[in-house]
Write a structure and sequence with these properties.
heterodimer; A: about 120 residues; mainly beta; 7-stranded mixed β-sheet; about 0% helix; globular; B: about 110 residues; 6-stranded mixed β-sheet
Chain lengths: ~120, ~110
């Protein structure tokens, strides 16, 4: 199994450009997440999905959009990139709930995005 | 939303010293997970605690979940340079919803 894969690994965008960060998992996990991590900081949840066709906002969703048409893929769309979106973006997946608690999250290697 | 405070933000230790990071919530948690992120890497799952007062050990690492399920700690005995990285807690609330990551503790180990 490849686990969670993310593309691209690095990207430089100009202000106002758009792009899609790709995320795929081959573990048949229902839950998928997008986080951003600014230098020296923690992980902030952008969007998450509990299954194909179901998405919900995290704590920092502004400027981003997601879709979940299949169990495997969870792309993150940046519209009109701004310097404040310079960050490392991590995608993660999880089997989801196990009773009343959550299963572990498996993270991808991340995408380093710079907006100039 | 759920607030999770993790302290300290930074910790510098000499190799061989002990290290502890704490995760505190104002609300009761259903479970708590701990992750480690090496410099330049991605978070990797270490352990999950579910029961009140639960204690789990992994070699030199000891994880505790408070009796009231509002706080947790990760303790490393006799740190090594391989322990360098950022340690995060990830907490789940009692109502259905998403988990919340703490801000992380950055551990530096001086040889």
């Amino acid at each position: 199994n490849a686990g969670v894969t993310q593309t691209p690994k690095f990207r430089i965008l100009k202000i106002g450009q758009s792009m899609t960060l790709q995320c795929a998992q081959d573990m048949n996990h229902n839950y998928m997440y997008w986080y951003r991590q600014d230098p020296g900081m923690g992980l902030k949840l952008i969007y998450y999905s509990v299954g194909a066709g179901i998405t919900d906002k995290g704590e920092v969703p502004n400027g981003y959009n997601v879709s979940r048409s299949t169990t495997e893929d969870f792309p993150l769309r940046l519209e009109l990139a701004a310097p404040s979106q310079t960050s490392v973006y991590f995608c993660a997946s999880s089997p989801g709930l196990a009773g009343f608690s959550y299963n572990e999250q498996f993270f991808g290697p991340g995408t380093r995005l710079t907006v100039l | 939303g759920q607030q999770v405070m993790q302290i300290p933000q930074y910790q510098h230790v000499q190799e061989g010293e002990d290290f502890t990071t704490y995760c505190n919530s104002s609300t009761t948690l259903s479970n708590i997970q701990w992750y480690k992120q090496r410099p330049g890497g991605h978070p990797v799952f270490l352990i999950q605690l579910v029961k009140s007062g639960e204690v789990k050990k992994q070699k030199r690492l000891t994880f505790q979940f408070g009796e009231a399920k509002k706080n947790s700690s990760l303790h490393i005995t006799a740190t090594q340079t391989t322990d360098v990285g950022t340690y995060f807690c990830n907490a789940g609330g009692t109502s259905y919803g998403k988990l919340t990551f703490g801000q992380g503790t950055i551990l530096t180990v001086h040889p």
